[in-house]
Amino acid sequence: MSPETMIRMANQIAAFFKTQPKIDQAQGVADHISDFWEPRMKAQLVAFVADGGAGLDDLVIEASRRL
Asked: Exposed, middle or buried by CB within 10 Å (0-12, 13-18, 19+), for 42?
């Protein structure tokens, strides 16, 4: 997928989990990505974060370290 689409999708997931105050938000993002993204998408996200993660929410960056 395009980097722009990946960033938008990941940031939307983070925005949702930021509304869930009684859970580990980064783990919620990581769990959602693990459950619903295919392996190529997850690998793309991890590689994008390794290259700096420009445009990604900090919660997505933390979650990517837990994948």
From this structure: middle
Residue type for 11, please?
N
d(CA 53, CA 57): 9
| Tens-place pLDDT, residues 28-62 | 999 999 999 999 999 999 999 999 999 999 999 99
Mutual angle of helices 39-50 and 25-36, in 10-degree steps: 140
Q: How far is CA 59 from CA 27, 33, 65, in A?
A: 9, 12, 10
